[in-house]
Amino acid sequence: MEPLKIGLLGWGTVGCGVIKILAENRELIKNRLGVDIVLKRVADIDLERERPVEVGRDVLTTNVDDVLENPEIDIVVELIGGIEPAMSFIKKALEHGKHVVTANKALLAQHGNELFEFARRKERIIAYEASVAGGIPFIKSLREGLAANRITTVFGILNGTANFILTRMKESGLSFHEALKEAQDRGYAEADPTLDIEGIDTAHKLAITSAIAFNTPIAFDKIYVEGISALDPLDIQFGGEFGYSLKLLAIGRATEEGLELRVHPTFIPSDHVLAGVRGAYNAVHIHGDAVGHVMLYGLGAGMMPTGSAVVADIMDLARDILNGVHVRLPYLGSYELKQLPVKPMEKVITTYYFRFSAVDQPGVLSKISGILGKNNISIAAVIQKGRRVGGAVPIVMLTHEALEESVQKALDEIDKLDVVKAKTQIIRIENLSTDRK
Amino acid sequence: MEPLKIGLLGWGTVGCGVIKILAENRELIKNRLGVDIVLKRVADIDLERERPVEVGRDVLTTNVDDVLENPEIDIVVELIGGIEPAMSFIKKALEHGKHVVTANKALLAQHGNELFEFARRKERIIAYEASVAGGIPFIKSLREGLAANRITTVFGILNGTANFILTRMKESGLSFHEALKEAQDRGYAEADPTLDIEGIDTAHKLAITSAIAFNTPIAFDKIYVEGISALDPLDIQFGGEFGYSLKLLAIGRATEEGLELRVHPTFIPSDHVLAGVRGAYNAVHIHGDAVGHVMLYGLGAGMMPTGSAVVADIMDLARDILNGVHVRLPYLGSYELKQLPVKPMEKVITTYYFRFSAVDQPGVLSKISGILGKNNISIAAVIQKGRRVGGAVPIVMLTHEALEESVQKALDEIDKLDVVKAKTQIIRIENLSTDRK
After folding, report:
1. Residues B154, B250: contact at Cβ < 8 Å?
2. B238 and chain A: CB distance < 8 Å anywhere?
3. Where are the alpha helices (DSSP H) in A244-344?
4. Is B137 an 8 Å CB contact of chain A?
5. Is residue A266 assigned to a domain?
6. Which of A122, A170, A205, A247 is catalytic?
7. Catalytic residue list contains A205
8. Lowest-confidence range among A277-286, B215-224, B426-435?
9. Which residue range is the domain that position B392 belongs to?
10. Residues B89 and B162 both lie in one domain
11. Is the pLDDT of residue A346 over 70?
12. Which of B98, B205, B222, B343 is flagged as catalytic?
């Protein structure tokens, strides 16, 4: 049978992974597919930089149209990242009748609805397994493997950089900045780590995930996002004493009042499987009405894990091409997507961890708890950490379920008290207590 | 579009799950598939027994041919279990041009090679997601999502009953028989629990899994199998003190000298993600050359989780039928399966936990360690638990890597010593130390 021909846009880290896998596992892939896959062209603006894998001179090009307009190429793999020119290149590839594989979560989170509609009209596929959770076959599991389920919740640890930093802060008591520095030294964090540490990358992935899970268009702009850069190892330690572990969690939840879509540092029970996800690992924990709780775990980034997902997509597309199938699955898993309301953050009800920096003198706790009570926030536990008469000490408090709006109002008032010496630290808790079967 | 028509063989627990999911999530499934799925006939020898879900009288039949020979039915779902008559029914369904979905791991483990060859000649699919790890989309992940990888190891907790029993023994110090009784009372274990507790069900699933992972025909008969019925909670406790957790582990490993395929109680490091798999949950931990370590976790049995996997298979098949595709994937993931040698258990090299019951008197340890040394077994740690001068006390020992053959030889000799009062307990250790990124 005629080999299938691939064109690659972007000879970067993931591109090198794809090239390496296609070369090293060529026979194995051919045996699983029934046909050979040939890397026809690789386009990049810089062909001189040192890379970990070699590509023949006749394959390399600086002219993107050598890929996009190449009549021999069946599948275009976009690994440039960012919005433009990636979006224009993808559209052009689709216009030229090519199927597309992409790992570009920022692009899909922000322009996925438009791109999928564009591809649908062209009767071409955009495959994007590598855009969420790297090497973990998560998109396939959600869109196909769990397709019989009404999904009720999605909890994700979707950024390995952030999880590495939190793991180091917890296990070695490092400050956020020390842990970030270590992540950068090890190559887990970029020079500008904003997307990773401020939760934006996690939100990109939650946007894609929740659209599939809840049969709704991608709604990146509606996600509440809070990063990890303001965290103190002290809170990780205090939370640990209450049996909680801190994770940068992506939360998607279908409720009667609309979807909850949020990304923020979250305490989860330390004996929950998600709490055991250490270092640069990712995991997604899903609840479906039939299957119950499912978790998928693995490396969410890196040359080879992401390459594994890209090549899996290529192989999936190859099967469709060989069978003359145009679009086997609806892009986001359902043919009719229903616009669902997203619950504004103020309306979210959850439980909270507070750390007040309050003067150690009689009557302080009464003032704080008075304000909380007035705002319908009921206290589940409170501990003063240490004594320092007349000076500020941490007072750690856990609440019962409370409304975010009320919490923000109460903390505004509390932080204005004379006896409160610094802004109160607030960390939301998810009491995942579900896998006890 | 014409609805797709399903015929069900076996109105049991999983059958009820499938019926319930198809009814309750009908609209959602139609939206994901683009076509309606209709349950046309349900065949069972007993239609009178009380069930948790209702089926219309016109759908029910005691005549299996109302399903197998029904020209309207596209997909036959076999949920009878066991070898015969399930195998004959599946063949007849294939002969009548139907695709087949089955959850029957015993049948596939023992006759899968023959059945897949039969189906291949008929150009029909046998889908079997539900046969391994229940609701977890594991077969799909392995056969498609990780298809770009050369798989090097598979570690599975594949039997919820056994894992529930071990969890209760660990967390509450129950004896094996007490924990089994509790599992039976809760409906997790059958009246005759042999398949679950003796590791046979786990071996069935390992047989299927390892064939896909290593591109080789199913080789159930070559698997070394040891169950959990001879375990003592004492060893779970002692292992815990060394930082190990005990699991009934399915192990598949590709080595230069052939495949290791074994099922036995295994100590794994307590901080490994697999150690956190509690109760009736299942998990599979895979290493692929590109993706690195991946774990999938969820419920491996039960009406609804297994139903979820069966309906996912039905949906997959429906897409193929709609697209006119006959067999989208090779049955075991590769077109050419290569017969690989399976390493005999005697040739396996691993590390060991021993508990000797030895008389507490001078010179005993020297005798034991002398025999071990003579057999090239080197000791990593040894602790005598308690003192009872002149009586028998447990001596717990961990070894460095040793050859199984030598270990059996040494223990035979040791158990014959006058100073050794009971058969030595031996538990193999897998020092999974891999997810530390």
Report:
1. yes
2. no
3. 303-322
4. yes
5. yes
6. A205
7. yes
8. B426-435
9. 345-429
10. no
11. yes
12. B205
